[in-house]
Design a protein that fits this description.
Mean pLDDT: 96
Helix content: 40-55%
Number of domains: 2
CATH class of the largest domain: Alpha Beta
Radius of gyration: 23 Å
CATH superfamily of the largest domain: NAD(P)-binding Rossmann-like Domain
Strand content: 5-15%
Low-confidence stretches: none
Number of strands: 13
Shape: globular
Distance between the termini: 49 Å
Largest sheet: 6 strands, parallel
């Protein structure tokens, strides 16, 4: 079958189930945005909103250059397609395909470092965005940059002319090169699920700068102070891994082969702090919400959506469910998620302007019930040691401070512990350590004691909470018995 590209695109005709871009980037058009970590989520989220903003305003100076982090797989998918790809939006009512043209190129720094250096120094570039996942920032338990990490250490020691390999290293060295090229203002927008993600990323970049030789540190820090902003954001869209069945469905709608197809739900939300160093896309015209304070939105999402997502994943996987939709269809698992939201999460939140927290929680569960999205429980279960503190442990701490007993939130943590002890796939930055502590064990008390000892996850306070320790022991025992 003919492949999607600039030549084949004009053979398509818009339909109710097929949306086509209004225009394509001209040859040699500069990139207004560089995005680190151009995986499925960015292509189904920020790129979609950026394209909508350009089409609505006619300002086509915001084409995206994607930067692959670990492999050149996305480059190999999109380069033969001139950057074009399809977002297959799936709902119980059916599927709709939208062809996206916002990504003008994809580069692989391991082979194209000079190209990346030139882009990051170019005054035409005004925005850098990132989706590199929580673990991609290589943070210590206290949230600071892990200077002992081999990639980070090599990026610091390598000097300004070396090719960095970590996300923070690439960003910091790129900003250093930009400073030396004239220092045009630029805004760096983190789009990962981190609390106060803009502040977190700025701190990591400054940690990198402070670890450099004195003259370089002073140069980069001065540039950060004067010409760089790090607004915080909240992102939300379910983007499951693309399957062969999805590609077949996409081909049926498109009539073309698309190696870069991504799948998403209809819902899309992006809240961005309105703090920019210079020009920005009219993202609000593409559906984003600009606000002075992202914090209430991100806490609502992290604790409600992400907390429920992880709880459904762990409990569902333990009960043999392959997808989140199957977990929601299980009355007991669904009730556990409902209890989490109603009893433990909502009391810890301040509602963002215009938001009904109860209605938001119900919408979240309705989205999770979408059977058209094969969001696998073991995929959501990945990186639990990184996700748990943000998604469930903050809720537990706040409820305990208020004198409450957050049983539902504790049940989600117990499900993670039972999952770690099970023979289900364990994909985690500290998987070997977790496996040594709990894998294959059947004594609930030992499992709880061992895992609570992972201080970078639970801190010093939660292991000292006798109520929590007891509830976790009882819940893990129940889950293992089942």
């Amino acid at each position: 079958m003919t492949r999607l590209d600039r030549t084949s695109l004009p053979t398509l005709t818009p339909r109710e189930d097929l949306v086509l871009p209004s225009h394509l980037p001209a040859d040699g058009a500069p990139s207004g945005i560089v995005h680190f970590g151009i995986g499925a989520f960015h292509r189904a989220h920020q790129a979609v909103i950026t394209q909508a903003a350009m089409e609505d305003t006619g300002d086509d100076s915001w084409w995206i250059t994607g930067v692959t982090q670990r492999s050149d797989s996305v480059r190999r998918q999109l380069a033969p397609q001139d950057g074009l790809y399809t977002v297959l939006e799936k709902s119980p009512a059916g599927a709709k395909a939208q062809v996206i043209s916002a990504v003008r190129e994809v580069i692989f720094p391991a082979e194209q470092q000079d190209r990346l250096d030139a882009l990051l120094a170019d005054p035409a570039l005004r925005i850098i965005t990132l989706t590199v996942t929580e673990k991609g920032y290589r943070r210590r338990a206290d949230g600071r940059l892990d200077l002992s990490d081999p990639l980070v250490a090599a990026d610091i020691a390598g000097g300004a002319g070396a090719a960095p390999a970590s996300a923070v290293g690439r960003l910091a060295r790129g900003l250093q090169g930009r400073a030396r090229a004239g220092g045009a203002p630029i805004t760096v927008v983190c789009c990962d699920n981190l609390t106060a993600n803009g502040e977190v990323l700025e701190r990591l970049v400054r940690d990198f700068a402070e670890a450099l030789p004195a003259a370089e540190a002073e140069e980069l820090t001065a540039f950060l102070d004067a010409h760089v902003r790090f607004p915080s954001t909240m992102v939300d869209r379910i983007v499951p891994a693309t399957t062969d069945a999805d590609r077949t469905e996409g081909r049926a709608i498109l009539g073309l082969e698309d190696a870069g197809l991504v799948v998403a739900e209809p819902f899309l939300q992006w809240v961005v702090e309105d703090s920019f160093a210079g020009e920005r896309p009219a993202w609000e015209q593409g559906g984003a919400q600009l606000t002075a304070d992202v914090a209430p939105f991100e806490l609502m999402k992290l604790r409600t959506l992400n907390g429920a997502h992880s709880t459904l994943a762990y409990l569902g996987a333990l009960r043999g469910h392959e997808t989140i939709a199957e977990s929601v269809a299980d009355p007991q698992v669904l009730q556990a998620a409902r209890d989490l939201i109603a009893q433990d999460v909502i009391p810890t939140l301040t509602a963002p302007d215009g938001t009904d927290l109860v209605a938001y929680g119900e919408t979240v569960l309705e989205r999770f019930a979408n059977p058209a999205l094969a969001h696998r429980t073991v995929q959501i279960a990945m990186d639990g040691s990184q996700k748990l503190p943000l998604r469930l442990l903050g809720t537990i701490r706040d409820r305990r401070t208020a004198g409450a007993e957050p049983l539902a939130a504790a049940r989600g943590v117990a499900a993670w512990m039972a999952y770690v002890a099970s023979d289900l796939p364990l994909d985690d930055p500290i998987a070997d350590r977790l496996a040594q502590l709990a894998r294959g064990r059947t004594d609930a008390g030992a499992i709880v004691e061992n895992l609570l000892g992972v201080r970078e996850v639970f801190g010093e306070d939660l292991p000292a909470d006798a109520w929590l320790r007891g509830v976790l022991r009882d819940e893990v025992a129940c889950l293992l018995a089942r």
